[in-house]
Amino acid sequence: MSSWQNRVLSRVITLRIKRKPSGDDARNVALIRAKLHRMPFYAQPTIPPGLIVEWVDGGDSKGEWLEWRSQARATPTVLYLHGGGYVACTPVTHRPITVALTTLLRGRVYCPDYRLAPEHPFPAAVDDAVAAYRLLLDEGIDPRHIVIAGDSAGGGLALATLIALREGGAPLPAAAVCLSPWTDLAGTGESLVTNTDRDAMFHGDGVRQASRVYLGDTPPEHPLASPLYADLTGLPPLRLFVSECEVLRDDSTRLVERARKAGVTAELVMEPDLPHVWPIFQRFLPEGRRTLRDMAAFIRKHTQ
Length: 304
Description:
The structure is a single chain. The protein is α/β, with parallel strands linked by helices. It has one domain (4-303): Rossmann fold (3-Layer(aba) Sandwich), CATH 3.40.50. The protein is built from nine helices and eight strands. An eight-stranded mixed β-sheet has the order 1-2-4-3-5-6-7-8, with helices on both faces. Strand 3, helix 3 (95-105) and strand 4 (108-112) form a beta-alpha-beta unit.
């Protein structure tokens, strides 16, 4: 059974966030941006004394570096790609996750400020994520000490980045970890329908509409937009987290199934009755803190 904190939080999210989309894409984008930036219990975390947070602009990549002070060249290093449906959020909105991971790992996290749709549709986000990874390599960080992570759209983007790196002949990171990743922009998952009333945050139709804003004229089955349709051969170990009641549940279950068939080590953690990307509510939600510890353990395992 989930915690009382989760039951309270899920109710608040449903009342304040969940809305059926209208037919006006521009209006829906504006609403999504406003609502996600006012997320309940989304308060910025306290920065621990040992943590350095620095905004950087590396030319091809800009974003937020978080580094544990005692580590001159900390290992591991996480490239964290924030969610927000490719239309919203920033490295700052996702500090509840990035600060927690940096602190747990006593390492480094780089969260790029990748370009958002509709101003910058596909493939801008993929190009920026690849540039962010190459920035880490240019910093002299061994790819064996890098893990790519992300949530929601950022989780799908993490997988797309792996595919783009493999196709480009770049050395791949040690592993990838994703929270409730959005892997099928064609919207064919059964859970988009069956969980549309159960999901505390989203309707299935809203997910389909967000994909149109990001894709523009690109077919939704494009492998760098929807990793579910990609050849996953040769990817590093994956660990995916999803809640059983999410509209995006099947984006994770099917991706893990396809990855295993391609010979990839892929693990799925399915939690009951938790909201989308629940670790972002970790200041209030004990399940969020538990999952962040799980993520940190997976990252340490694959970067030692």
